[in-house]
Amino acid sequence: MWGVIMKSLVITGDSLSYNRYDYLDEPRTNAWDCPNGMGSWSFRLRNLFLSTAKGFKYADELNFNEQAISGIGEEFDPMDSVFGERVRTVIPKDDKIRFEAESDNGKIVLYLQKRPRNYCRFSISVDGICHNERIDTYGDNSFYRGWSVLPVELACDKNKKQHEIVLSQFEYADDKPMVTIAGLSVEPRYSVVTGQGCRTAKFINFHFEQRVAAFSPDALVLIFGGNDVLYYSPEEYRENLEIFFKAMKARFPECKLITVTIPPSALYTGLTNGVKYTSQKDWDENQAKYNNIMIEVSQKYGAQTVVTEELFRGIPTEKWRFDDVHMKRFGNDLLFEKVKEILFS
Questions:
Q1: pLDDT tens for each residue of 57-104
Q2: Residue 241 contacts residue 297 (beta carbons within 8 Å)
Q3: For the segment 18-40, what is each residue's pLDDT rounded down to a tens digit?
Q4: Contacts of 214 (CB under 8 A, 6+ apart)
Q5: Residues 6 or more apart from 132 whose CB is under 8 A from it?
Q6: Regions of the chain with pLDDT less than 70
């Protein structure tokens, strides 16, 4: 077992890190431009990471004294719900939302979803003791279309198991406040997918603070190379990966690192780092150089690597690949299972 307690998971890279293909018709520049309910490998991994926290319960396992709607509300896109119909949206009654939670370790973590409409501010009390900060569920549309997950850590008496949670003192801007609750646990977990399409390892180095360090990862999954092969020499790619891993080791030395190589891709007929390839064989050999660099640098810094060439070997391309490089749902399924196996081993 990995020695570090994993509280924060970051999944990042290029468009393959969120792989909206075969799920969404319209392009998405960033992972956080996609709806929470997208079923790609990384979004499923994110959700699994949250739902395997100690003592986790989905919102549909909680008993609310007030009206609780399945999902995020009928007038909203169900794709924005992080756990589908297992999420509950609750409407306050007499300025309160009340439910019970179990914890015997002095901690309760409430997983809310922010909202682009019917958002609100409120106070939370546990067993009559008010939490210090007021909670604001306003969802910025630039992140998961305004529906990002908001973990709220609460203290409770560790000498008792059953606890009453009360949300009260609501302030709101729309016609009525609504609180969307995804679940709760007794240990904090946070997970985010921060990739951007058409980007390279050099990009993630430049945006390291925003897309990696800001989330203090205990585990990180990285997939790059598909665009690096177009713009940078193998030596430059190695250098950019070295910069990234050195930054990770300096800032987060105990972080569990998982890397994913470029999936087998179709021949690119344009200029590739100044070279025009005319055969699939030559293209594959060139891509293999970049994948080997990812494997070598990963080993150097203690990262475990998913070698996609091995993962998809023997499977007809049309079954797992959507276009020249991105994955169909079947390919997502395979990659999800493999990364999950490494992450939780």
A1: 999 999 999 999 999 998 899 999 999 999 999 999 999 999 999 999
A2: yes
A3: 999 999 999 999 999 999 999 99
A4: none
A5: none
A6: 1-4
Instruction: Report which DSSP code applies to 64.
Output: B
CA distance 334 to 345: 17
CATH top class, domain 55-187: mainly beta
> For residue 227, what are its two tokens?
């665009």
DSSP state of 285: H
* pLDDT at position 173: 86
Expressed in angstroms, the distance from the first to the final Cα of the chain is 6
Q: Homologous superfamily of 8-50+191-343 in CATH?
A: SGNH hydrolase (3.40.50.1110)
Q: Check: CB of residue 170 under 8 Å from CB of residue 128.
A: no
3-class SS of residue 120: strand
Model confidence, pTM = 0.96
Question: What is the predicted pLDDT for the residue at 132?
Answer: 83
- Residues 306 and 157: their CA atoms lie apart, in Å, by 43
Distance CA 338, CA 308 (A): 10
What is the chain's percent helix, strand, coil content, to nearest 5?
Answer: 30, 25, 40
Residue bearing tokens 């999944």: 11
Spatial separation of the C-alpha atoms in residues 44 and 289, rounded to whole Å: 30
Count of C-beta atoms within a 10 Å radius of residue 181: 23
Do domains 8-50+191-343 and 55-187 share one topology? The answer is: no
32 touches 144 (CB < 8 A): yes
Share of the chain above pLDDT 70, in %: 99
Please state the domain extents for the chain.
8-50+191-343, 55-187
**Secondary structure of residue 23 in the 3-state scheme:** coil
What was the pLDDT predicted at 2? 47
* Structural contact between residues 126 and 110, judged by C-beta atoms closer than 8 angstroms: no
Do 243 and 33 contact (CB within 8 A), yes or no? no
Tokens of 315: 């499977």
The CA-based angle 202-252-249, given to 5 degrees, is 60
